[in-house]
Fold these 2 entries.
Entry 1:
Amino acid sequence: MVSQNIRHEVRLLSRNYWFVSLSLVLVLLCLYAGYNGLRHFERRQADQQQAIAAQQEKEDLIQEVALNLSKGEEHPSAFRLSPMNVAIYTGQLATMPATEISKLAIGQSDLYTHQIKISSSEDLATLSFNELNNPVQLLFGNFDLAFVLTYLVPLVIIAFTYNLRTQELESGRLRLLASNPINTNLWLLQRFIIRYCSLAIILTFILTLTAVMVGMAFSLSLVTFFLLTYAYLAFWFAVSYLVNIYGYSSAKNAVSLLSLWILLVLILPTVINQAANTVYPMPSRVTLLNEIRQTKKELSQEQDRVLDEYLRNHPELIRNEGQNAYGYWQGYFASQELMEEELSPVINRFDEQLTKQQKWVDSWGLLSPAVLFQDGATELAGTSSKNYNEFKANVRSFSLDWRAHFMPFVFDNTMLEHSDLEALPKFEYRSILGTSGVLVNISVLLILSVLMAIRGLALEGKQELLSFSRS
Amino acid sequence: MLHAVNLTKKYQENLALDNLNLVIEPGDIYCLLGANGAGKSTTINLFLNFIAPTSGKAVIDQIEVSKDPQAIKKLIAYIPENLVLYNELSGLENLEYFVGLAGMKYQQDELVSFLQEAGLQSEAFKKRVKTYSKGMRQKIGVAMAIAKRAKVLLLDEPTSGLDPKASNEFSELLLRLSQQNVATLMATHDLFRAKETGTDIGIMKSGKLVEQLSTEEINHSDLEKLYLNHMNN
């Protein structure tokens, strides 16, 4: 029966102008989405390159000054080697490089910044990541390949399969088919699998074409992206199969499947996000900013007391010259650290709520195949909220190291030398996120698909009886 | 070959078939006559296992239909009133597909010979079925029965809507299959065709088989009178 069905479906599909036309439309949409992804990737790369070039210019300048001074020459910009200047003005650039897959799944990369100037004048609470928000807000926004696959491909699947059984039932052909020694639900499943394979082949072709067009190299991530796509397709085919088994009318099947699409792709992700906000509300950002300003103001008014208190906690920084030797910057650095200590409960509350929200979305996202697919795709692309949280943690940690590195210079009131520049900490984004999360998403989608297929097969006989007695 | 033993089908309170008993031997063409809703199609659906009997049993070749439907479906061929085929496929492709579902494999020339045997014109073999007349479609159904080497033919008003020539051709095909010992159960409204083609006639009314007779026992006009008599009472 399998070979018969394969030949049969290939004949039917190749003579179905609707299928051929829609496949062509899908090709065009994917290519356009790929082009959008590429454009976004290039823009991000260009922005990053521009920032890196500007940073390099600053670093070259202090290198030049340090070299001149080390040779005993004078330089009009010698002040640039002061620790405050290097720590604050020169700073460091933290960048989050774009991955190749981000051409396919822009994710939240248009919401977050990928390069941050790390400077000791920035307090960690106000570092701008745009993160103090629901992590999956505006999750589905760009017309990239992930958007086409998440939203449009399920509609294509529905269009090609919603009446695969009911068409036979309504025309009376199912009676003719069922007069043969076949298990009709298995026969139907085979037709679904053949159509699934047809669409998977078409999408593989389209994705490969898009990948080549946007200049992507073959990689494990790309293969995982393909697997995720196949699993997502399998889910929608399985849903349609089950609806076909239960359904008695093509019109009702179409309405049911579209309703499920609306529920699973549109409503459920929104409800999960909203519920995350309701269950774990974020503290007010205005309150946070007010608290920061208030604390800053209080600490700056009490600079001397603050410095005294700070030095009591950091006796290793006390110099023999006496307190009068400490100037504005020492007070500033000291107040910054104290401010962070005082604000840490507020900032931690944000982080905790954000983490809880993310966990909530991760857990309940299992209910929506769209969230599973989108999360998996953006995780592979390095554009998921998890990636940005990781980048943020990297930046925060590096900021502390950066400031700590300059403390001895500030309190010694010594200028940096050429050798000190070589020893400056360098930021490097290290991602420890693997593909295990994506593999879980793939497994969940496949398990759900198989369970639905088994359920459909188990209804053989009972459903046949009902359907025929109604015809 | 075909036995209905106290076969009864109820839909809630509606008795669609009431204690039907009949026997159809190989080579017999048994024509079930009756008004709409008399129980003719229900009888055929029970033999096809499309519905389950409320009581009694339908037996084909000593196998109870509801107990082993897959075995039964290897023995039977079914031709409904409107044989709906795949319009985008040719007659030959449709035959190949349906015969394949029955588990039979044939070469192209063998499939062609079945279509020829069923009386389909050779120029139609590779034309898409959407261009076929109803008579041509019914011939594909007969070709399926031939290819399937069916022992039993279940026909649900197969000549309804056919022109007299096509209807006559269809009857000739049935007679030819009958000579090959195929047992046929045919539900029909066509008294003339039943008398001409059938070996036996059963008249049904309100789910009951009210009359059984051999076609040799009765002429056309007496059959019509008998039928109308049952319908009017």
Note: Chain A touches chain B at residues 1, 3-4, 7-8, 11-12, 15-16, 171-173, 175-182, 187, 464-465, 468-469 (CB under 8 Å).
Entry 2:
Amino acid sequence: MILELFFVFLLTFLIELIVYFIFIRERKLKIVYYCFLINLFTWPLANIFYVIFQQFYLIEFFVIFIEGFLILLLFKLKWEKAIIISLISNMITAGLSFFF
Amino acid sequence: MIKQMLVICIILISLVSFASADIIREGYRGIHITNHIQNLEDFPDYVFISYGQINPAMCPIKIIDPPGREDTGQVEIYYKHCSPSIYAIPKDKFNGTELISLNTKKVLNEQGIIDYVSNEEIISYLNSVGAIEVIKKIQTYTEVPIASTEKERDYFYTIDLNQVKEIPDNKKVVRNSLVYIFAGVSILALIGIITAIIFSVKKRK
């Protein structure tokens, strides 16, 4: 089970990383590090809250908002761009969760 | 030809639906629920049994704490679709061999097919020996989200012969340490994020 969870986290991280690479013009290593930190913060919390509240869409909404806010702070982007990056990356990962 | 194909389709569909009944939903995992009866010793004149309500082949009759086993008041685990009820049978009317033999007994049913004894016949037998239903439809299995911290559940019942219980008096959830690991990882990541923000602010100054 731990391995399965680790795989799901890794997949989420890699997908979001691709989106970050497409939209953010920064040093690659910096993008990888910040993307990892952001995912490491939101992914376990989202799982805990999902277990407690079972509200997938509501939790995804908060994840998009929090990740957008963190992207804004860490990469110093405009808030609209930060939210769009967060929205796209989370929509892809959330969408994939229905198929896998 | 069409009729034959229709029959084959029906058989296939029923096989598929039967197979999927055993599959755990995507993103979920199964956990066992152990049911405990806490005051069995208050009823020395009764033998307690569990029966799963569907039919004895799938959800057999089981004696709770049979002779030779330590008194635990623990109901044995059933197949996930069984919802066993607990019955108290007066000791003077209890015939263990006869009761347990109903699990494997085969009879000629209404359609003329040799089959296991039906649920109705079991209930009728239980009524004939004065069985009293004390707990209705207990759960021995449930599914939780894959990331759930729940490892297993324990339900506790205190029985009363004049009352049919439907919900446990107490519930205990045994959790694994995943929730603490998740929370710890999140906190560490948050510390990393705050450090990165402070570092970048200082750098700008």
Note: Helices of chain A lie at 2-23, 28-53, 56-75, 79-99.
